[in-house]
Amino acid sequence: MTLNDTLYLTAFRQLLAFPLRTTLTALGVVIGTMSVIIITVLGDGLSAAIDDELGGLGFQFLSVTPGEQARAGVIDDARPFDMQDVDALRRQIPGVASVSPLLSRRLFVTVRGEARRVTVSGVGPEFFRQRRFDLASGRLFDSSDLSRSLPLCVVSEDFLSGDDDDVPVPTGLEIRIDRAVCHVVGVTKKQSVIGMAAGKDTIYVPLPFMQSRIAGDRTVSLIQIEARADFPAEAVIKDVQMLLRERRNIRGEGQDFRIEDMNDMRQTLSRITTLLTATLGSVALVSLLVGGIGIMNIMLVSVTERTREIGIRLAIGAMPSQILVQFMIEAMMLAIIGGLSGAVIGLAISAIGCAALGVPFIVNYQTVALTVAFTALVGLFFGILPARRAASMMPAVALRQE
């Protein structure tokens, strides 16, 4: 057995001799490593979900809403759009592939004798196609439903579910909206993490039915526009802006509507996710350093407790460098044990969290390896002081210690 093997074995035996102390000391590193892994994996999963959700809509997806952007927020009392605006966008702009108007209200509805407040949105068939809805059962609206203004609705599969139970939604379910009674014809899959599918508290009805039987007017609160793939999004935005300004008699620089490019939204959300991941990851790294301080503290205690042992080893010929290496190995082992344990626990919790949030479980093994390597460096750094103190002892002085 070589000298290095002896040093590693001695350090390992010392850690096994005090299992409770070893566990409690490594706990700080476990928590720090676990936090870094969880934050990184969830952040990567959220970023992937955003790219998949918004990227699936394509770069040619626009959202137009009434209201101007002010310093204090959004002014919502602007004149709403109407169906003439929708028809004009559909007919007069060559770069538009499809237009989907939407009218929403927050209303009380009655389901199975219970009243609840939900968002009721009137939409057409284009809305579901643009938003890439996935059906769990039933069907979505078609042009016949709109032309006949039928009292139908589409809800999410968790529409009836509570916090602790999962109640399936049958097609044909009766929902009373104000004085109208609708029947569920379609059930969509659960809402995605960023809400592009039907939400638990959202009911979709045919737009003409919403306008005539519920809202009582033909206004539109939002217009979704899908641009043609062979037209630049910037050109379509400019054409939409010019047309709406003309129809709303807007002069000057200001305007009372907003046009949002889905690609810009995706980039903004990705930047926010990256920033939050980096910020929270930095905080988690600080907890790793705190765990390193705990290692240094317990190693100093260990040096004090083993003063006589150190004196005996020095007296019979051990080199100070060997004492130094042994204590640094102990500190690094503590950190590595904590790092590996934290990585395993962090990955397990991340898998559960990703499944609960409905985001992809993406593991960057390079990040995991770097995090564990960083814990080893933390142990090395915070083990220097105790190791030097042990190596600098004078044998005669150390042997006098009881």
Automatic annotation (TrEMBL):
<feature type="transmembrane region" description="Helical">
    <location>
        <begin position="275"/>
        <end position="298"/>
    </location>
</feature>
<keyword id="KW-1003">Cell membrane</keyword>
<dbReference type="Pfam" id="PF12704">
    <property type="entry name" value="MacB_PCD"/>
</dbReference>
<feature type="transmembrane region" description="Helical">
    <location>
        <begin position="20"/>
        <end position="42"/>
    </location>
</feature>
<dbReference type="Pfam" id="PF02687">
    <property type="entry name" value="FtsX"/>
</dbReference>
<feature type="transmembrane region" description="Helical">
    <location>
        <begin position="310"/>
        <end position="329"/>
    </location>
</feature>
<keyword id="KW-1133">Transmembrane helix</keyword>
<dbReference type="InterPro" id="IPR050250">
    <property type="entry name" value="Macrolide_Exporter_MacB"/>
</dbReference>
<keyword id="KW-0812">Transmembrane</keyword>
<dbReference type="InterPro" id="IPR025857">
    <property type="entry name" value="MacB_PCD"/>
</dbReference>
<feature type="transmembrane region" description="Helical">
    <location>
        <begin position="336"/>
        <end position="359"/>
    </location>
</feature>
<feature type="domain" description="ABC3 transporter permease C-terminal">
    <location>
        <begin position="282"/>
        <end position="393"/>
    </location>
</feature>
<feature type="domain" description="MacB-like periplasmic core">
    <location>
        <begin position="22"/>
        <end position="241"/>
    </location>
</feature>
<dbReference type="GO" id="GO:0022857">
    <property type="term" value="F:transmembrane transporter activity"/>
</dbReference>
<comment type="similarity">
    <text>Belongs to the ABC-4 integral membrane protein family.</text>
</comment>
<feature type="transmembrane region" description="Helical">
    <location>
        <begin position="365"/>
        <end position="385"/>
    </location>
</feature>
<protein>
    <recommendedName>
        <fullName>Multidrug ABC transporter substrate-binding protein</fullName>
    </recommendedName>
</protein>
<dbReference type="GO" id="GO:0005886">
    <property type="term" value="C:plasma membrane"/>
</dbReference>
<keyword id="KW-0472">Membrane</keyword>
<dbReference type="InterPro" id="IPR003838">
    <property type="entry name" value="ABC3_permease_C"/>
</dbReference>
